[in-house]
């Protein structure tokens, strides 16, 4: 049992299926909740069929949230949508800039709207020289530590840092979307004893990111693959980093604080470090012929095969399939197909486990993409953050719009009414 205010709640709530008490909540979870209860296929069909009957019992906020976000997220079938648009359509037909606009403003932009948005992004790429100085002073630190520190420092140079209005927060989100790639690549250059490559005001978001790696303009195909990578990482519901950013925003903290919090949580190896670990695994496998035995040995020892399984997706991770063909193409373009061949061999070795809902996730392919582009392994997680800024920004804005203080209560399980013993009498 655990206690919420004056109510005792059974721990069965955590482990067993339950349904909404609409007469009590009036659809509050549709507005304030993110995770929800796991749905079976028959239950999603029931939600579709019964929604009109349920609707009169919902609050206006609940109805608005459902109409905006959909009735549920179908992880079982491997479906991911941004604002109702399938991730496959967005990855294949759109750009990161367009997807960022969609996330931030809730609709796909017109050409004039996208042109204006792109202009704002390109004009915001440079970071203050004093932030560069801070990066120089901590150049030996891990890239995620540098990114966290630099984003926090940026607030000192942003005239709107403390302004939490919708318009100001949106402008700050656009600036941070542009500035975070510059931070990552500036640090990468500085720690190598080089001067940072000045960001381009002409290239796309993805092309500019690769350009700042070594000052060379990437091919269209390479930029397109990086663009697709940013798109599939742009948002993914209430994962640990997004939820942490919302908790921060729930205290009425500013956007820079919330984004810094998101970066801090993302730095944990249980959240953002999987792509880096996949690359280590691929190097350990060494060749396609070793994949079967490698997987078998990991399974026998009870260890995870990196890049497989997901808390949401019990079928294909739709983000993974978008990157798979890119890895294949890039491997061929770079004249080094062995990396892709190892990935395919590991996937083949893991096929028996698909019946358990264990499939390749987005991290399985991302790491090899970064490696083939010549990006250092410890930049894999910062790249994740580069793509995630628009998603974090809109999550913070949503929290501001319907704000509650996110403060779970804990149940103390130790002893009560203990006698205080003076220090001289303690044993």
Description:
Helix content is 57%, strand content 2%. The protein has 21 helices and four strands. The protein has helices at residues 12-15, 22-25, 28-32, 41-54, 60-69, 87-93, 96-105, 111-123, 129-137, 143-154, 166-191, 205-214, 220-233, 240-250, 255-266, 274-285, 291-300, 318-333, 338-350, 362-372, 380-401; strands spanning 2-4, 7-9, 81-82, 85-86. The strands form two sheets. The protein has a two-stranded antiparallel ribbon with strand order 1-2. Helix 11 runs parallel beside helix 12. With 427 residues, the protein is an all-alpha fold. The chain has a domain at 2-72. It starts with a strand and ends in a 26-residue tail after the last helix. The longest helix has 26 residues, at 166-191.
Layout of SSEs?
Blueprint: E1 2-4, E2 7-9, H1 12-15, H2 22-25, H3 28-32, H4 41-54, H5 60-69, E3 81-82, E4 85-86, H6 87-93, H7 96-105, H8 111-123, H9 129-137, H10 143-154, H11 166-191, H12 205-214, H13 220-233, H14 240-250, H15 255-266, H16 274-285, H17 291-300, H18 318-333, H19 338-350, H20 362-372, H21 380-401
Antiparallel strand pairs: 1-2, 3-4
Helix pairs in contact: 6-13, 7-21, 8-11, 9-10, 10-11, 10-15, 11-12, 11-21, 12-13, 13-18, 13-21, 14-15, 14-21, 15-21, 16-20, 17-19, 18-20
In short:
The protein is an all-alpha fold and 427 residues long.
Helix amount, in percent?
A: 55-70%
Q: Can you list the strand order of the major beta sheet?
A: 1-2
Weakly predicted, low-confidence segments: 22-38
Residue share in β-strands: under 5%
| Shape label | globular
How would a crystallographer describe the biggest sheet?
Answer: 2 strands, antiparallel
SSE string: EEHHHHHEEHHHHHHHHHHHHHHHH
Overall pLDDT metric: 82
What is the rounded distance between the termini? 34 Å
Radius of gyration, in Å, reads 23 Å
Structural class: mainly alpha
SS elements, strand count = 4
């Amino acid at each position: 049992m655990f206690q919420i205010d004056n109510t005792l709640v059974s721990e069965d709530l955590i482990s067993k299926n339950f349904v909404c008490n609409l007469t009590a909540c009036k659809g509050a979870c549709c507005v304030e909740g993110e995770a929800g209860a796991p749905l079976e296929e028959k239950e999603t069909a029931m939600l579709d069929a019964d929604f009109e009957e349920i609707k009169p019992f919902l609050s206006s906020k609940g109805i608005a949230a459902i109409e905006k976000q959909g009735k549920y997220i179908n992880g079982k079938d491997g479906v991911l949508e941004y604002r109702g648009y399938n991730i496959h359509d967005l990855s294949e037909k759109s750009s990161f800039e367009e997807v960022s606009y969609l996330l931030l403003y809730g609709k796909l932009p017109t050409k004039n709207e996208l042109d204006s948005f792109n202009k704002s992004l390109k004009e915001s790429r440079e970071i203050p020289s004093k932030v560069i100085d801070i990066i120089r002073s901590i150049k030996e630190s891990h890239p995620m530590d540098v990114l966290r520190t630099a984003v926090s420092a940026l607030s000192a140079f942003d005239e709107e840092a403390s302004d939490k209005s919708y318009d100001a927060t949106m402008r700050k989100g656009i600036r941070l979307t542009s500035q975070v790639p510059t931070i990552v690549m500036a640090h990468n250059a500085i720690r190598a004893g080089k001067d940072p490559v000045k960001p381009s005001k002409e290239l796309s978001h993805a092309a500019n990111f690769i350009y700042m790696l070594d000052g060379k303009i990437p091919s269209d195909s390479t930029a397109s693959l990086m663009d697709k990578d940013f798109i599939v990482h742009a948002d993914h519901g209430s994962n640990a980093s997004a939820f942490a950013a919302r908790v921060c925003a729930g205290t009425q903290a500013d956007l820079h604080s919330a984004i810094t919090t998101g970066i801090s949580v993302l730095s944990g190896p249980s959240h953002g470090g999987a792509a880096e670990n996949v690359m280590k695994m691929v190097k350990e496998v060494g060749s396609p012929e070793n994949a079967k035995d490698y997987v078998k040995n990991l399974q026998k020892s009870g260890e995870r095969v990196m890049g497989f399984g997901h808390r949401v997706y019990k079928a294909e991770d739709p983000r993974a399939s978008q990157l798979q063909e890119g890895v294949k193409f890039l491997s061929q373009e770079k004249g080094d197909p062995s990396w892709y061949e190892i990935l395919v061999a590991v996937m083949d070795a893991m096929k028996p486990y698909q019946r358990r809902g264990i499939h390749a996730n987005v991290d399985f392919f991302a790491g090899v993409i970064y490696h083939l582009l010549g990006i250092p392994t410890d930049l894999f997680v910062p790249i994740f953050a580069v793509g995630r800024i628009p998603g974090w920004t809109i999550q913070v804005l949503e929290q501001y719009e319907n704000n509650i203080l996110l403060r779970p209560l804990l149940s103390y399980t130790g002893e009560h009414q203990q006698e205080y013993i003076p220090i001289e009498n303690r044993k």
